Amino acid sequence: MAINATGINHVIIAVEDLDAGIETFGKTWELKLDHLGESPEMGIRMAYFDIGDATLELVTPYDDSESNLLRKHLDRKGEGLYMFCVRVDDITEAIADLRSKGCTVTDPVGNDEVQEAFVSPRNSHGVRMQLLQRLK
């Protein structure tokens, strides 16, 4: 068994103000904004910047309820790295490998195009880690 990471899929940075984040990464870092998104289920807005074959994703909550995980994260830790996603060849094998090493990993979820799983931040020095396998 092995994780067989093939690359970085995306990095997510939590920000309080999405427009300010877009300004910082667009103007200061000269990254091109690819598109904006929103997730009503999660109560967040997103901005995506493509960097080579990876994506930088900025996220901010618009739902400040106590159940919003991103809001909780920002209140506890402030702005900064929220999640790091690694592409893998075989998500089932990667999950089995990590679990055999004592890591807590969710079961895979997804659709016909991608499968993803999440590793507890307790197993990666406080960083939320995501595994992603592209099926198509």
The CATH level-2 architecture is identified as Roll
Order of helices and strands: EHEEEHEHEEE
Q: How many structural domains does the protein architecture include?
A: 1
> Uncertain spans, ≥5 residues at pLDDT below 50?
none
Strand content: 35-45%
Largest sheet descriptor:
8 strands, mixed
Per-chain topology:
Elements: E1 5-14, H1 18-28, E2 33-39, E3 44-51, E4 54-61, H2 69-77, E5 80-88, H3 91-100, E6 109-110, E7 114-119, E8 128-134
Parallel strand pairs: 1-4, 5-8
Antiparallel strand pairs: 1-5, 2-3, 3-4, 6-7, 7-8
Characterization of this structure:
- By secondary structure, this protein is α+β, with helices and mostly antiparallel strands.
- It has one domain: 2,3-Dihydroxybiphenyl 1,2-Dioxygenase, domain 1 (Roll), CATH 3.10.180.
- The chain has helices spanning 18-28, 69-77, 91-100, and strands at 5-14, 33-39, 44-51, 54-61, 80-88, 109-110, 114-119, 128-134.
- The protein has an 8-stranded mixed sheet with strand order 2-3-4-1-5-8-7-6.
- The longest helix has 11 residues, at 18-28.
- The chain starts with a strand and ends with a strand.
- The model has no long low-confidence stretch (mean pLDDT 94).
